[in-house]
Design brief:
Layout lengths: L5 H9 L4 E4 L3 E2 L24 H10 L5 E6 L2 E6 L1 H10 L3 E6 L4 H13 L6 H16 L6 H9 L9 H9 L3 H7 L1 H4 L3 H8 L4 H4 L10 H11 L5 H15 L4 H12 L8 H19 L3
Parallel strand pairs: 2-4, 3-5
Antiparallel strand pairs: 1-5, 3-4
Helix pairs in contact: 2-3, 4-5, 5-7, 13-14
């Protein structure tokens, strides 16, 4: 994720000098760490075996980059640097360098997310999940509400009284419209479709599936055909148009037209007598339709 929060680099060391804090004075709120809440999946990210390389580095060189904390009552809450904190604990350090900053709960979580995200090679789905979480924190709403909230602003049904457009431009370098069109659709894919995307299936092939309800019986079958390379984008769109039309209770003639449209791309695969028969039927159909003009 290309984040451009200008104050993140300032907080992480451009302004001020680090202080030394005794390790027991630092409070870790693990459930708020992005690595623990599913946005940055990683098996047991803070166990000693996983941190072995970092532990060796800390043992030899100490903590090279200060931890980021904020003061809460008599304790200091860890905002960013839980891996370094645990490495110091495993090595047996008594105190660690920290940068102490004042910030709100939302700001603390945003900085924790951004700091962790910048250290990972994120896939598109993780990028979208993290972006949605950051926007939700800024708006003080649930992540699942972000899509509807932003869409309402984009369509003029809701005023942008929380300046979320400016926030998105500052943090992500995108307009609200661009973020909606490039990231939100990824979160509407089912888990299987998201996995297909990560496996290399182009999003342009998956996007038409969003016109069907997530639990539509044909949606998973279409995904299998996409993964097997059996459908082009046009064939998929025609198939979905047929399914959507069926759900809208179209007339039998309209349904036949949709199904015929879906099958037309396959004409080129016919040979011999089948091809001649198809050509004859299409010619007869053109003659019949010509009488209506």
């Amino acid at each position: 994720m290309s984040s451009s929060l200008p104050s993140l680099s300032d907080i992480m060391g451009v302004e001020g000098h680090p202080s030394l804090l005794p390790l027991p004075q630092i409070q870790v709120v693990s459930e708020r760490n992005p690595r623990r809440i599913g946005m940055l999946p990683e098996d047991n990210p803070f166990e000693e075996s996983v941190l072995s390389e970092l532990i060796d580095s800390v043992r030899e060189h100490g903590i090279l980059q200060p931890l980021l904390v904020r003061k809460i009552d008599s304790k200091y809450q860890l905002i960013a640097g839980e891996r370094r904190y645990n490495a110091a604990r495993f090595v047996g350090l008594k105190e660690v360098p920290v940068l102490i900053r004042e910030m709100t709960d939302a700001e603390a979580q945003i900085f924790a997310i951004v700091e962790n995200a910048q250290r990972k090679n994120l896939n598109l789905v993780q990028d979208a999940l993290i972006g949605r979480q950051i926007i939700a924190l800024h708006l003080d709403i649930q992540p699942e509400q972000v899509g509807a909230y932003l869409t309402a602003i984009h369509t003029g049904r809701r005023p942008d009284d929380r300046n979320v457009s400016a926030f998105i431009a500052r943090v992500f370098g995108n307009t609200l419209s661009t973020w909606l069109n490039s990231r939100l659709p990824l979160l509407k894919l089912t888990e299987s479709e998201q996995q297909a995307l990560l496996n290399g299936v182009p999003f342009v092939l998956l996007k038409p599936l969003l016109k069907l309800d997530p639990d539509h019986p044909e949606r998973s079958q279409l995904l299998k055909r996409i993964e097997a390379g059996e459908l082009t984008t046009q064939e998929l769109k025609a198939e979905i148009e047929r399914l959507v039309g069926r759900n809208r209770s179209v007339s039998p003639m309209q349904q036949l037209g949709l199904e015929t449209k879906m099958l037309l791309p396959k004409l080129s695969s016919l040979q011999g007598s089948d091809l001649k028969r198809a050509e004859r039927l299409l010619k007869e159909l053109n003659q019949l339709l010509g009488k209506l003009s």
